[in-house]
Design goal:
By secondary structure, the protein is α+β, with helices and mostly antiparallel strands. The protein has 2 domains: 2-119, LysM domain (Membrane-bound Lytic Murein Transglycosylase D, Chain A); 139-260, Thrombin, subunit H, CATH 2.40.10. It has 8 helices and 9 strands. The strands form 2 sheets. It has a 6-stranded antiparallel β-barrel with strand order 4-5-6-9-8-7. A 3-stranded antiparallel β-sheet has the order 1-2-3. Helix 4 (84-91) crosses helix 5 (95-101). The radius of gyration is 19 Å and the shape is globular.
Length: 264
């Protein structure tokens, strides 16, 4: 376990030539935790957690220390005049979050320094598709606009690709499924050909409205639409939506929602 912790800590600071890194965090298991809930909380997968901790089964126990892989991150090279506050504002983060991600003990940074930008942080300049910003709507209203069993067209902000979905459930956010195999294929293309928990800024076109939202790209749970080649459902969050597992607002989803609304 000690060796794994060293590897995880080293990975947090490891930058690849592409400007990406892999990050991890420690989590002490609490009563009621499951690998699925932890995967939801940290934006990763059950298999990734099992692999990081050399687990043969999904059995965990209170007090157990787990290394949670939080996925791929991006890097940022500090420019003259930068501050953690200004960089954080660009990516929808706080200075404290940047300090934690980079193991900084002070807010002092210097030009040329490389910083880890945690997963799910979305700079305003990331979108090149020309997709028009969506309407920022609180979940209490979006829940009614994008009502149960209603259909919508999802447009990915970064790529401009669109596909159709139907809402099938969800009380704290929308649980949705692609309508057809073609829609599933388009969604998978948006994620580069592999399913992922990564949050993406999207526009939900429903009822004549264009709502700013965020989706993850991992099939999970149950699915009710037959022959759509999608084993389960995926989640769509709006402003102030919460996860079903933690009952808390997910910062990465909220950053993506703000990007979809053109605010960052």
């Amino acid at each position: 376990m000690h060796k794994k912790r060293i590897i995880a800590t080293t990975a947090l600071a490891l930058f690849l030539t592409t400007g990406s890194a892999f990050a991890a965090t420690d989590h002490y298991v609490k009563k009621g935790d499951t690998l699925w809930l932890l995967a939801q909380k940290y934006g990763t997968s059950v298999e990734a957690i099992k692999k990081s901790n050399n687990l043969k089964t999904t059995m965990i126990y209170p007090g157990q220390k787990l290394i949670i892989p939080t996925g791929q991150t991006s890097s940022y090279t500090v420019q003259k005049g930068d501050s953690l506050f200004l960089i954080g504002k660009k990516y929808g983060l706080t200075a404290a979050q940047l300090m934690k991600a980079n193991n900084l003990t002070t807010t002092m940074i210097y030009p040329g320094q490389k910083l880890v930008i945690p997963q799910g942080s979305l700079p305003a300049s990331a979108s090149r598709s020309g997709v028009k910003a969506g309407e920022l709507v609180d979940w209490s209203k979006a829940n009614k606009i994008f009502a149960l069993y209603s259909k919508a067209t999802i447009t990915d902000v970064d790529t401009g690709l669109s596909f159709k979905v139907q809402r099938r459930g969800g009380s704290s956010h929308a649980d949705v499924q692609p309508l057809t195999k073609t829609d599933t294929a388009t969604m998978k293309k948006i994620y580069g050909g592999s399913w992922s928990w990564n949050r993406r800024a999207i526009i939900v076109n429903v009822g004549g409205r264009r709502l700013a939202a965020s989706m993850n790209g991992m099939p999970h749970g149950e699915g009710a639409i037959k022959d759509n080649n999608f084993p389960g459902h995926f989640c769509i969050h709006f402003q102030n939506s919460k996860t079903h597992g933690t009952k808390r607002v997910d910062p990465a989803h909220q950053a993506a929602v703000k990007k979809a609304a053109g605010l960052i």
